[in-house]
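Review form for a predicted model. The reviewer records the input and the model, then writes brief findings.
Reviewer: anonymous (R2)
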Amino acid sequence: MQSGTAPVAMERLRELTGLELYQRNAFRLTGLPTTATRQAIRRCRQQINTAVRAGVDIPAVGELPVPGRRSAEQYGAVFDVIDHPQRRIVDELFWIWDAPDGACGCDPALHEAHDSAVRAHAWALDEELGGRAAPSTGEPSWGAAAAGWQRALEHPGFWGHVKHRITALDDVRIGLAAVPVLEGEVHRTLVAPMAELATGASAPHRMTALFGAWSWAGGNLLDQAVEGRMEPVLEAVRTALDRARELHAEDPAAAASIVEREVLPRLDGLRAFDGEGIRRSLAKVRERTALLLNNCAISTDGGTPLPAAAAARLLDLALGLTETEETRELVADNRQHVEYLAILPAMDRAHTLLEEDEPWKAAEALRKEVLPLLAELRTSSDKGARDMAAKFTDGAAILLNNCALALAGDSSPTAVRTRAEFLDEALKLAETRRTRKLVKKNRRQAARIARIAPYSDAFRLAVSGLERGQRLLRDNKPGRAAAEIESHVVPHIDMLAECRVRKLRRPAANLVDQTAILLNNCALALDPVKTSPGESRRLLSVAHRVARKRKTRALIMRNSDASYTTYADHRLDGLPPSVQQLIRRLPPEQQARYLSQLRDRW
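Model under review:
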């Protein structure tokens, strides 16, 4: 039946539709029963008007009184509702009927179900309007309201009671033709507060979880209510998509920026309604957004194409928005294509870095830019993609192997450890037997190098220190030469003594004896005038400890055991001046040898 049959009733329904469905109810505000007679209404109106004019506060009355103070004009509007039968019947419908009287003839269970639903629904909305926290377990008021209204409206006598009340009002301004109007709108009015609470909440999931309890009211009513309230958001999304679509051919980056900045946040906020309310409209918008992101990612019509990494990210976003299998397959295919495009330049960058003698950076680029893409491709459901990924993965293994080989000249502990890590990773990535064989060979060689690397470093450092000591001794600085050898050669010599690597054992033994002989020469070259005999004996003791060959040890023992102290006591002043001058002019090594021979004769 058309709403024009009861236009004032429809107007009142629209006024009450929302969160204040019960708080604006005329019978709740006045405390009058829904069956109040004209005389009772007139008496209540006079009492309230008198109190308002006298400035006396009117206490909240009736069941579930609405707190707050109202003016004379507000009370006048409330009584105007009750005075008009079409408005009054709407407020009666949504307030307590109490027990049926003799004239009503209704089943008491009907009134009980109706009144329980009204109380629960009014209490639930009062809680929401009052800002009280949701119950910790469940939603008893909302559940009772939904179940109560369902029982009441499904009772065969419900609309019979409404017809009885229209007849009892006995007013020409309303007839039984108003019943179909109320019957057609009551469900929409009941579910409207749910839609308003869900769409206006920062966390709508709590309310959407309750939608199922009201499904009896009609599957499309909540959908329509939610869609009506969210239409401005959907329209803003459509407008942003239109702007982005106009841009995507000439400037895909700008178009994608509009989608990410203006569309995706709004779609994320609508996600709570994905299964409710605006499902169909939301699905269309999501599908359109997915296709636009896909087009931005692969755009080749003009402008500057997006980098592969940016395109891959947009396609990932698009995959999360697709609604149809056809679109999902399209975006997935493009996603794989973009991954190939990203892998090739990344591999080229790693090759270039390796050619520029930057193996560390080459391996880092490979790990960050190539391996994540390969890992994703290797799990693809497309066999062709997996085969292509295997080829790229084998190439990455060879590249890592070459990075490890480029570190072969660096025997530092960090380089040795990193080289082993590169080869271990390359072995895991190798896809072909040939590549695995190559990497294993280099891994064994790297392991051998790792074992001798500490000794190689010690040998190199010892040689360097020994050369510095020899230069100092030739410059007639035996004391500094001895200090250099003790500080920078002897510690490495001690380490080489533990070496069991055949390639290093003989060179290490020769180096040890050279060190011992040089210490022996330093001890003998010390100036007897400026140096105590104890220092020479100490250096000879160190030289004897270091020496390996029997001949070298015998020489040092002979120098140590001889009566050098006696000679040192006589000093050079015991020699003729011409001999003193001759000895002082000799190089330190010859001086040490001459003094030794001279001492042996004594």
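Findings: The two ends are 143 Å apart (CA to CA).
Further findings: Confidence is low (pLDDT under 50) at residues 133-138, 563-571.
Recommendation: see findings above.
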